[in-house]
Amino acid sequence: MSATPLLELRGIDKSFGPVQVLRDVALTVHPGEVTALVGDNGAGKSTLVKCISGIHPTDAGEFLFNGEPVHIGSPRDAAGLGIEVVYQDLALCDNLDIVQNMFLGREKRSGIVLDEPTMEQLAAETLAGLSIRTVTSLRQHVSSLSGGQRQTVAIAKAVLWNSKLVILDEPTAALGVAQTAQVLELVRRLADNGLAVVLISHNMNDVFAVSDRIAALYLGQMVAQVRTTDITHAQVVELITAGRSGALGLTTETGSNGDGTQPADSISGGLR
Ligand SMILES: Nc1ncnc2c1ncn2[C@@H]1O[C@H](COP(=O)(O)OP(=O)(O)OP(=O)(O)O)[C@@H](O)[C@H]1O
Q1: ipTM above 0.85, yes or no
Q2: pTM of the prediction?
Q3: Which pLDDT score, from 0 to 100, does residue 155 have?
Q4: Which domains are seen in the chain, by residue range?
Q5: For residue 190, how many other CB atoms are within 10 A of its CB?
Q6: Buried (b) or exposed (e) across 5-17, using 16+ Cβ within 10 A?
Q7: Where are the alpha helices (DSSP H) in 82-140?
Q8: Distance between Cα 193 and ligand 1 center (Å)
Q9: Ligand 1 environment, Cβ below 6 A
């Protein structure tokens, strides 16, 4: 694990009109790791991701990328940093094939014509680099793919574009057991290849199977960010449902120190 987090959020506030949805949120995301972002319905996970991806402007707080302060005011800013979000409802076009989808809006050209051989080769290399063997033909229309294959293509697309941080919104929500296992393997491989991965999930089995750290949001507050090996399933459920864990001595981390430690006040504030 790299000592410098790829992304740090500090003191993020976000309101919609009179409703404060995020309060003083801190989050630290490391390259080479999967950080699971958990929280009940309405806890603020999607809002936080939309702030990170530049869709929602924040009201307060700061972002650091590779230790440097950055401004993320638009999706273009986020994409420029290498932040890519793969949404659950997958922005893939059914009537296009896999290569066309992976290069949609960023097609390679040779003069005025599309450079199909290069795009096909780059798509094949990306899929091979991720050991993706479930896709048989790159010229298959996306409409004919299974849910797991679609997830795979959407994730590979993020990798193709040299993303540094890939945020996955419930990637296994609609999948069966075998496809879930394949997608989780792919999620792990992304991190093993050095990317930072944020995984939003309601599924504790997925979270414990694949994550290195767990960040728990409760009513818009980050109530804990811990190593997955330092917390039990029951404690995570308690954080999600009650905003606290009964386990005293749970080691939590914060974005501000970046060294795996947390100031004492944050610990008491984080585990109520
Ligand atoms: N554009 C908006 N305007 C007003 N309120 C909003 C808006 N977007 C989200 N909210 C509110 O913010 C809160 C957090 O919503 P958010 O979708 O971020 O939660 P979530 O943790 O992603 O939930 P879920 O797991 O159900 O997707 C909710 O109370 C929601 O109603």
Answers
A1: yes
A2: 0.87
A3: 87
A4: 1-82+163-251 (3.40.50.300), 95-161 (no CATH)
A5: 22
A6: bbbbbbebbbeee
A7: 98-102, 116-129
A8: 32
A9: 16, 19, 21, 39, 41-47
